[in-house]
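Give me the fold.
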Amino acid sequence: MLHPDRLLPSEPGVRSIARRLYESVAALPIVSPHGHTDPRWYAENEPFPNPAALFVTPDHYLFRMLYSQGVPLEALGIPRRDGGGGSVETDPRKVWRLFARHYYLFRGTPSRMWFDHALEQVFGIEERLSERNADALYDRIEAALRRPEFRPRALFERFNIEAIATTESPLDPLKHHARIRDSGWGGRVVTAFRPDPVVDPEFPGFTENLDKLGEITGEDTGSWEGYLAALANRRAYFKSFGATSTDHGHPSAATADLPRDEARALFAAVRRGTASSADAELFRAQMLTEMARMSLDDGLVMQIHPGSLRNHNGVIEERFGRDMGADIPMGTEYTKALRPLLRRFGNETALTIILFTLDETSYSRELAPLAGHYPALRLGPSWWFYDSPEGMRRFREMTTETAGFYNTVGFNDDTRAFLSIPARHDMARRIDCGFLARLVAEHRLDEDEAQEVAHDLAYRLVKQAYKL
């Protein structure tokens, strides 16, 4: 089912070069510095329950496509939080059959490639999923999941994962990470600090979240100084569980550097719940600068993921909750937005800020020139909607001429779908090797240099950027 030359250039001479480059990096360990897999899996090491729960229900790439074609989320086993609507499908086999019936929808998508890769490479299944063979493949996968070699820790080792980061709220007690640490298992699973619930005034329950932050840390989160101290406290706690990075999912890339009295007054407004939308945006902007300051102090790498209008479908959010596949990219401005933060910290060689985008038009116009100048900046890889062969190619084409390869940070998979991790990294390695092969074929790069760059993009740069 998987062609050995998939994703490599079609022109024979360039393909030959790409093959050699890919062979030199294909077996390198996977470093996954930013993702959303569940730390409970590695802590408890229990079998995955069934094929539908493993592949379909947790993967918003899959169920957003099915929903777009009229498949109700309840039919995929996803319960409504408001208690309304029709019955929720509780039979995972029926969920799997429904997915198989609609598998044709994923033709040409990266989800199709990731799923086929998992079937063949993980379960040894070399036939395409269809309504006809759905039950047979379900039985094969379910039987495999009962075996010890398909438990989370065994798959972690089989996938050659050197390190993986999960992502948690500052309010998370990190009990699963504590259990992993205390288990004696050698797999490296670290956390990452995602402060959105306590830095975004428009986040649901923001005021209550600040109260809880104060309870956890013993700091007075009713004051600006106590609030900042509480955040520094939690960052140190996350570092004690291996965290090397923070992650900031803001609507825009806006930053601010307010005088202390103005910042204190702004915090008082958001703490009282009287802040306007403009105040909320200014507060988020100020907090990115505050987080950069803290990163300079504690060494945590800072990731900024702006440009998503999250939970765009209000009906879905009301019925099923947040993060249910209805997040839509927006145009995002970076040059003016980042200037306040960069004027203060952009020249710091001890600070690393990794920028992501969902607005490809900014790659060559703003992001590559910014990363090609400021020592503190690096470009994150193609993210979310551009985590695809075409998206990865466009990223290299639009950024390399200005930022080069060494102002980027390799690849991260940013996924909740555990079995897609090897497929995503393999895809990135193939695309990068194809891009490098073209440079070699056009006599713009020698092949020995291309091999070194391929290794750096697949392995070294991500370890260096994320301090792993």
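The chain has a mean pLDDT of 96.
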